[in-house]
């Protein structure tokens, strides 16, 4: 257990939509909060306008929120760091940071090539650092506005998960502590892939029944992988799994769902991505998740279908046909 005694200061690393929203929440919960943006010009513009125009336009950033591109300054005296850069950039960003306090990763994905989950990336870069994940059904915009939301803080470190959940909760944001970080990370990474599938069936006009079946069978394949990696199936049935699937597979604001929707309508992946200035984690995660599952002998047919569509080996209708024609079996 870490000597974690509560939070006076929080450093949020990554000034995308989610980092900005979490910084606002930390502030609301009473922590002195700094938000680190890697680009000095962006930090300057955000400080001047009190707005993150690129990722959370229209949301006021109060004067008490320190915004800086200097990582030393952001992390000085911090009791907790929230690491909120996209999964594929986490490993590249960590060497730019000085010593970290106990940290929660809020990215959702699997790293291309190495097949690591975010906490594994952090553990490799900072061995022994008390760490956990923050994950749940949370659109950044709503959390920034203080609308009601819940999530989990999952860590093997009891003091960290309980202290962080208690200190970052307030008003509309309710954090449950959890002792299964693997289950939480697998759920968070995989729901983005299933959300692409859900969007694709809706975009292709295959119907609401198809979406409900995909989400439910998606949950089953996520649970299989979580268990194979040392997590628990019940975690996948909670906020970080089922909760986030419900949000991203039905909420039109999900970037993963909307990318799937456009693919299902026949648009090309490159064209969809070219129009976006924000991250769609499921695209890089789908093949990485599939490879990670294969390495532990777990079948993930929906993830495989999404990877096939993303990599141009199949169209949406063909991929769904293939899923429908798999051998019949017992549900569980
Ligand atoms: N936006 C949301 O509602 C939520 C997002 N998340 C997760 O949080 C993570 C961050 O997502 P968002 O804040 O939405 O991102 P975003 O799409 O709003 O912004 C992209 C972020 O990535 C950073 N970035 C781009 N290239 C980079 C590089 N080479 N090195 C370091 N940073 C780089 C940008 O500076 C920016 O901070 C993702 O893993 C996402 O799945 C989790 C929950 C909610
Ligand atoms: O993780 C999220 C909500 O919990 C955000 O989902 P998208 O990245 O699909 O927008």
Question: Can you give a write-up of this model?
Answer:
This protein is of the alpha/beta class. The chain folds into two domains: 9-179, Rossmann fold, CATH 3.40.50; 182-324, Orthogonal Bundle (N-(1-d-carboxylethyl)-l-norvaline Dehydrogenase, domain 2). It has 16 helices and eight strands. The protein has helices at 17-28, 40-49, 71-75, 87-93, 118-125, 140-145, 158-168, 181-203, 208-228, 233-236, 239-250, 255-264, 269-274, 281-295, 301-310, 316-324, and strands at 9-13, 32-36, 66-68, 80-83, 103-105, 131-135, 149-154, 173-178. An eight-stranded mixed sheet has the order 3-2-1-4-5-6-7-8, with helices on both faces. β4 (80-83), α4 and β5 (103-105) form a beta-alpha-beta unit. The longest helix has 23 residues, at 181-203. The two termini are 36 Å apart. The chain binds 1,4-dihydronicotinamide adenine dinucleotide and 1,3-dihydroxyacetonephosphate (13P). 1,4-dihydronicotinamide adenine dinucleotide binds at residues 14-19, 38, 55, 84-87, 89, 92-93, 106-109, 138-140, 278-279, 281.
Write a concise synopsis of the structure shown.
The chain has 332 residues and is an alpha/beta fold. It has helices at 17-28, 40-49, 71-75, 87-93, 118-125, 140-145, 158-168, 181-203, 208-228, 233-236, 239-250, 255-264, 269-274, 281-295, 301-310, 316-324; strands at residues 9-13, 32-36, 66-68, 80-83, 103-105, 131-135, 149-154, 173-178. The chain folds into two domains: 9-179, Rossmann fold (3-Layer(aba) Sandwich); 182-324, N-(1-d-carboxylethyl)-l-norvaline Dehydrogenase, domain 2, CATH 1.10.1040.
């Amino acid at each position: 257990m870490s000597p974690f005694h509560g939070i006076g200061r929080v450093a949020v690393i990554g000034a995308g939509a989610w980092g900005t929203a979490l910084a606002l929440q930390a502030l609301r919960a009473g922590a002195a909060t700094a938000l680190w943006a890697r680009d000095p010009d962006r930090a300057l513009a955000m400080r001047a306008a009190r707005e993150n125009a690129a990722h959370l336009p229209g949301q006021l950033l109060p004067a008490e929120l320190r915004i800086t591109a200097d990582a030393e300054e952001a992390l000085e005296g911090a009791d907790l760091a929230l690491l909120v850069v996209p999964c594929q950039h986490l490993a590249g960003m960590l060497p730019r940071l000085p010593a970290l306090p106990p940290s929660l990763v809020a990215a959702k994905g699997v790293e291309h090539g190495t097949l690591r989950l975010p906490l594994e990336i952090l553990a490799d870069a900072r061995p022994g650092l008390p760490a956990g994940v923050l994950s749940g059904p949370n659109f950044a915009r709503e959390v920034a506005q203080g609308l009601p939301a819940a999530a989990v803080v999952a860590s093997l470190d009891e003091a960290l998960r309980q202290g962080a959940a208690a200190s970052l909760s307030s008003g509309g944001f309710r954090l449950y502590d959890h002792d299964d970080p693997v289950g939480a990370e697998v759920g968070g990474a995989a729901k983005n892939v299933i959300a692409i599938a859900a969007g694709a069936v809706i975009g292709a006009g295959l119907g609401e029944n198809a979406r409900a079946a995909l989400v439910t069978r998606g949950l089953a394949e996520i649970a299989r992988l979580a268990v194979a990696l040392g997590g628990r199936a019940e975690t996948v049935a909670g906020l970080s799994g089922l909760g986030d699937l419900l949000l991203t597979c039905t909420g039109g604001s999900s970037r993963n769902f909307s990318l799937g929707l456009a693919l299902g309508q026949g648009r090309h992946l490159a064209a969809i991505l070219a129009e976006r200035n924000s991250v769609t984690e499921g695209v890089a995660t789908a093949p990485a998740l599939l490879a990670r599952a294969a390495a532990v002998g777990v079948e993930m047919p929906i993830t495989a279908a999404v990877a096939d569509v993303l990599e141009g080996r199949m169209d949406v209708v063909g991929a769904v046909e293939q899923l429908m024609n798999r051998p019949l079996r017992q549900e569980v």
